[in-house]
Amino acid sequence: MSELITPGNLSHLHLLLNHFPTVGLIVAFALLVVSILSDSEAMKHDTMRPTALGVLFAIAVLTLPVFTTGLAAEGAIEKLPGVSKAAMDSHEDSALLAFVVLEFAGASAWFGLWRWRRTRRIPPALTILTFVLSAVSLGLMTVAASLGGDIRHPEILADPGTAGAKSMFSMSAAGVAFFVNGRGHQWVWPTLESAHFVGMTLWFGVLLLANLRLMGWFRAIPYPSLHRLLPWALLGFGVNEVSGMMFYIATPKGYTTNVVFYWKLIFLLLAATDLLYLTVWPQAWKTDVGTPTHVRERVIGAAALCTFVAVMYCGRMLPFLGNSF
Fold first, then answer.
1. Distance in angstroms (rounded) separating the CA atoms of residues 129 and 123
2. pTM, whole model, 2 decimals?
3. DSSP of 222-283, one letter per residue?
């Protein structure tokens, strides 16, 4: 796989993946709007809104590789003729803000799914919060996508000189990098590493218990009791994502050429899929005291644990199998 990790291939991958936070987000937002306004039979049983929230959560997770491959694409085209560095920086900063808001929208959507599984209803306040966050993220993604089109398509601009214009709806990636690696900030990196390990321990510990229950262990514990702990797993996942992205933004070139980093991303997406499965899948929820689990659930639980170990292994081996540090 290492021979596939080239700037050109990563650029093509970014162009492919960026449809998730653009087109995919439009689909998720439309489903959410219809679920709020509709009085259909599906809404009476409250099944359409969880579907919309599940799609939104999936889009939020899939946006992670979109952003990371975007920085790799920047390294591939920054020296090409006709490419504006200012336009790339503007696109990156706008995409960073859109990414952050979308991750909050995804977290809000997940909490809606978690409450729906426990009570068969989603609190109206949580629905409104998810709607607002997804609407804002959709607008920010539109701005970021428009600025991305300016990088290599000056012919679509009324004034090519505006290619380096900066959006007012942006977050400074350079500012994040300075905060992590800047002079006098030597304490930031080790602090983030500590937070990263704490977050990893939190989400791995909770999901370890939940998946071991699916594998047939701890039969005296009903799965719904373990389901109560899942918000702590999401918190740990969020801490890992924030600290990991700050590492990445601070030293992107140390990661974009490292094949182990992309393996970690793949396994991380699978771990997020397992979290979604444990949150809403009915067969897992029906695992009561003394109830044996189906072979399918046992296989899923074992595969998930292998995935978590792979995430930690790849993260730990980044300095040794690659050049991330």
1. 10
2. 0.83
3. -HHHHHTTHHHHHHHHHHHHHHHHHHHHHSTHHHHT-HHHHHHHHHHHHHHHHHHHHHH-HH
